[in-house]
Structures are given as structure tokens and as C-alpha cells.
Amino acid sequence: MTRQHRNGLLIYLVFDFLTAMLAWTLFFLYRKVSMENNAFDWALLMDPNFYLGIILIPFGWLFLYAIFDSYQDIYRISRMATFFKTILISFLGVIAIFFALLLDDWIYGYQAHYHSVITLFFLHFFLTILARMTILTIASNQLKRGEVGFNTLIIGGNANAVGLFEEINSSKKSLGYRFLGFIDTNGNSTNELAGHLTKLGKIDDITKVVRERDVEEVILAIETSEHNRLKEILNKLAEFDLVIKIIPDMYDIMLGSVKMSHIYGAILIEIYPGVMTTWQRFIKRTMDITASFLGLLVLSPLLMYIMLRVRNSSPGPIFYSQERIGRNGNPFTIYKFRSMYVNAEDQGPQLSQDNDNRCTAWGAIMRKWRLDELPQFWNVIKGDMSLVGPRPERQYYIDLITEQAPHYKQLLRVRPGITSWGQVKYGYASNVEEMVQRLRYDILYVENFSLLLDIKIMLYTVLTLIQGRGK
């Protein structure tokens, strides 16, 4: 996100805060004058409750909007969607304020409760939507005039790419694309787009180009004959936080896959809009932190016992740490209780086997019940991991897996987990081939994420532990 985009988002957020303050100020005066029969006087605002509310309540509104609306680049926000979301969230927020702050107020009859809710709702909604629509309209006009744009890369260089480029460029209003160049997808391509844009490389160069050129959007404009390379392209883009769009075929349109965001411009399908919505990410993260804190607290006697047993099992440290690859390919340090003898990997990286002679006697017991994974609650609290998600791997094994299954990189779109669907359905993998077989379950998890699925996986994990089938 460029500085101009960040400034626009900051202005949007500040005005949400200011309008919430103004709405609460007007509502406070309304209550004092209309319901308590006071003469209008600005001195009414000297009430300590007013100062407490005018600070806390706007922050509460920002928190609510961040969860259910999400603060994103204002140049990508739909005004129509924002209008309806603001109505819904304003209603939910006012109801929350009513039960938290207003219900116990001394008033003249219950009708005053209805008046309070309706008045606060209309004040907050009207002021907020007025500010939001003004800011978003200004942003939309900047986008249409070409004053703001997104660094865009076209992948493909023949008829489809040329047709798309010409259609976008012929639009009377800018669509926000700042084309950097294109990637050739076929060595035999005639590269017709080269007459309009600079060729930046071939498919193998995608990762380098995206990093070096600060690409924000990618448009896949490949030919039908090149569709066999689509999976390869998507795998290379999976590690980046990009908006990816593709020219749809007619059957995509007939199946309803194409959603119109505006009534002019090229027809494109947006893919990778995000595995989870903002409110789902918030709930999942809240569940992760809460469960991890409770887990460490409730299991603290067991953790102390395990630490003593590890200390007495063989010479060496109690905890074992190792670098793993997490979300978006970022490395992190994972923690476990040591279950093997020191220097168990002197001969290089090795996967654990059944009856592995590198494990101590106590280590084998821990692995059976997955007790060695308990320190990873700390990884969850730190934000490196989640309770549920694909198991994190070392870069060494990721390289081996991607040689056979390049789509492994799709797993890097989410936080890795202490337990996973692949681990529940398949168990630990003892070699790369088994890791590839387990991969399909984790890919299904990423593509079908839901909070209910997370809960089911956690319940199955508990059942697995009770039955002692950890390994």
C-alpha cells in the first residue's frame, strides 16, 4: 500500500472516530435536554460520564467496524456495500451501547428507551455515512481520473492479453490499473502485447518480478491453450498478498462465478479474496489466544511433570526449538518438549519413524499422546501459529514436497496449526511421499475453511489423544 493509500485509510479511520464522538455528544445533550428537562447549556457537557463516554465509545465503534467491516484500502471499497454494512453495524453497536450503558438509567417510562435507541442510531448512522460517502466519493473520483492506481502485472502476452489491455485503456474512466509490464507464459508466444508493454520475463521470473516491482495486482490473461500452466502460475503467486484477477470463460459467467463490481470496464474474476473474512479471523484468533492461555494454566501441573521427566530422560535441554516456515513463507521458531536424544540429526534432517531409536523412552510416550506439542501453545499466543491449521514444515522438506506437489505453497496462505485436518485424517508422515498424500487434506482445509470445521478438527484431535493414537 502506497503512502497515498495509507493516508486515505487514515483519514477514513479518523473521521469514523470523530463522527462517533459528535454523535455521542449530540445524543448526550438530547438526553439531558429532552428527557431530563434541562435548559440547553453547553455546561451540561461538564458531566464526568460524558468525558468517559466520548473517549471510550468511539474506540468501541472503531473496534466493531474493524471486526465486521474491516479497514482496508479506501480505493478498493464499494460505496454500496459500505452503505448497507454501516446500517447493520450501527444498529448492532447501538443495541450494545443500550444494554451496556443505557438500560439501567433512571428515565420517565420505558418509551424513553425506544426514543434513546432510535435517536442514537440515526445520529450515529447519518453522521458516519455522510463522512464515509464523502471520503469514498473523493477516492473514487481520484481513481477514475487516474491520480491513484495499483501496480499491475499482466501474465500472458497474446490475443487475450492484448484485448484486455486495449479494453481497459479505451475506457473513458481509469480503472485504477498502473501497468508495469507483462510476463510471457509460452516460449513460442508471439508476444503481441510487447507493442504496448515491456516484457518483464517468463513464468520462472514471476516471483522475482513481483518482489522487485512492488506488484499489487496481477491479471491472468492467458490463452486457452496455456490453461495447463494455470496451476503453476497460481502456486508461484500463493506466497504473496496480492489481488489476482483472471479473464473468465463463458462457462464461468454462466455458472455465476463472475461478480460485477462496477458497470464499466473489463470483465474479470477476482480470486484469492482471502481465506477468511475479518470477523472470522477475529473469532479464530480470539479462540486461539483464549484456549492457549487456558491450556497453559490448566495444564501447568502436567507441564511441570513433563519437564521433570524430560530432564531425567537423557542429558540435554528440556525444550527443543527448530525453525519452521509459517504464513506467507515467514520463518519462525517452533517449540516442543525434547523427545529425542541430543544430536539426533547429526546426519541431516530426518522424519520420525515408528519405533524411532532416536527417541528416548519418555519421548516415545510423549509422542504417542502428543504431549511434546504442548509448548506450541506459546507459539499460538505469539501469533506464529493457530490451534488448527496445516502443520508447519522445515524449508528443507518444503523444497522436497514442492518438487512433487507445487501446490503445497497454497498452505502458506494461512497460519500453521498445532493440529490439522491432515494430521487427524492421516497422522504423522514418515517420508516425503506420505507428506504429499497428507497434503490433499490440508489443501481441502484451506479451501473449505470455517469455524465449525476448526471445532470439528479440535474435537477429533481430543478423541485421538484420548485413544493414544498420536503416533
Quick description:
With 471 residues, this protein is an alpha/beta fold.
Outline the fold blueprint.
Layout: H1 3-35, H2 48-68, H3 79-102, H4 111-144, E1 150-155, H5 159-169, E2 177-184, E3 199-202, H6 206-213, E4 217-220, H7 230-237, E5 243-246, H8 250-254, E6 269-271, H9 278-298, H10 300-313, E7 319-325, E8 331-337, H11 361-369, H12 376-382, E9 386-388, H13 395-404, E10 417-419, H14 421-425, H15 432-447, H16 451-466
Parallel strand pairs: 1-2, 1-4, 2-3, 4-5, 9-10
Antiparallel strand pairs: 5-6, 7-8
Helix pairs in contact: 1-2, 1-4, 2-3, 3-4, 9-12, 13-15
Descriptive account of the structure:
The structure is a single chain. With 471 residues, the protein is of the alpha/beta class. It is built from 16 helices and 10 strands. A 6-stranded mixed β-sheet has the order 3-2-1-4-5-6, covered by helices on one side. The chain has a two-stranded antiparallel ribbon with strand order 7-8. The longest helix is centred in the N-terminal third of the chain and has 34 residues, at 111-144.
